[in-house]
Structures are given as C-alpha cells and as structure tokens.
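Narrative of accomplishments. A recurring question from our advisory board has been how the design workflow behaves on a single, concrete structure rather than in aggregate. To address it, we present the structure tokens for one chain from the evaluation set, followed by the sequence designed for it. No filtering or post-editing was applied between the two.
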C-alpha cells in the first residue's frame, strides 16, 4: 500500500478517490478532471524529444513509458525513429483518441511497437521500463515516488522542463546524467530536459 502525506486538502481528496477505484473499474469523470487539474497537459516540442531520445544509450529493444503521454508524440517518435517498444498512459480521453489516430497512421511494424492506454499513470506497473518520460510540474514530483521505486538500477528517468529537487533525487537515488537544452524554442515552451539514472537496486516491497 502506498501512503501519500499531503498538506493540501485537494490532493488528499484526489488521492483518496484514486484508492477507491478498483483495478478494472472505468476511470470516473471526477477522477479524470481532478488529475488534469493537478497535472495539466503540457506538450513537448518534437525537436526536444528527438534530442533526448538521441542521447539515450539504449538498443532498439529498450522499453519506454511515457506517463501522461498526451497526444502520443513521444511514444510514436521513440518507436518510429529509434525502434523502442513504447507505452503511453493518458487519462484525458480526447488526447488518448488523438494518440490512437496518430498511431493508426503508422506502418504496421511500428504500430506493433507502440501501445497507448487510457488509464491512470499513478497506477502503472512499469518495473520493466528502461526509460521513463515525465512532463509534470515540480509540486507533483512527490507522487512519482512509488512509480520510480518499481524500476531497476540503470533505468533512465527523463524530466521535461522541470528539474526535480535534490531531496527527491537523494531519496530515490537518482543521479543526473545529462541536461539537454534547446534555446531556440518559442517562449513558454519546454527548452530543457533532465536525464537521470537510478543508481540503486529496486526497492523491496514490505
């Protein structure tokens, strides 16, 4: 059982609603709206995505998860240009459908390397991940602890735009590998990505 200590009543209510959902239950409209308020959709420029993927030292068989995948642009590029097996989770049904349309336009062999799921990123089991992508605000980083804790030593964690705190990295034993910048992007667009590697073995369950 994952316990979240939240000072904000809104977040307590949000996470309690999450715990009430059964594993196979349809995502409630309330929960979907709350999650999108907490973590709004922030699209990553394609140029920055490509720079990040080019810098990752993984073979084509690598497994990539984009949690909060939006319109699917990360998983599509990862599969199409780099050969990664790519999985995206998106709770916004409109964005999820946009991603499905994008994937449907791909050649069949690339489609077979992509999987888009309409679901809750906080309930994902990504213990087989080699790469995790996140584009969420710093206040929400704390809710990623249980997700990152599932992953093996050597997993790469990519944070778009917002660098996690030293305390967060120390707790999860994340080491900064590289900062990638794209200073030519438009104003208010993501211009940086921070790539971390997990330095410890996977946490054992109690």
């Amino acid at each position: 059982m994952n316990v979240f200590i939240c000072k904000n009543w809104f977040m307590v209510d949000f996470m309690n609603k999450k715990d009430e959902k059964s594993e196979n239950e349809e995502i409630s409209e309330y929960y979907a709206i709350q999650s999108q308020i907490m973590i709004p959709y922030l699209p990553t420029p394609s140029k920055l995505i490509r720079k990040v993927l080019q810098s990752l030292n993984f073979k084509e068989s690598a497994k990539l998860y984009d949690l909060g995948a939006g319109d699917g642009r990360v998983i599509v590029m990862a599969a199409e240009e780099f050969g990664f097996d790519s999985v995206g989770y998106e709770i916004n049904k409109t964005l999820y459908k946009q991603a499905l349309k994008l994937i449907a336009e791909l050649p069949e062999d690339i489609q077979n390397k992509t999987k888009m799921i309409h679901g809750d990123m906080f309930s994902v089991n990504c213990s087989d991940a080699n790469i995790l992508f996140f584009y969420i605000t710093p206040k929400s980083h704390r809710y990623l602890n249980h997700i990152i804790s599932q992953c093996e030593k050597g997993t790469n964690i990519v944070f778009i735009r917002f660098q996690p705190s030293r305390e967060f990295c120390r707790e999860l034993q994340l080491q900064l590998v590289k900062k990638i910048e794209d200073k030519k992007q438009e104003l208010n667009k993501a211009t940086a990505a921070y790539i971390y590697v997990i330095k410890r073995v996977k946490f054992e369950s109690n």
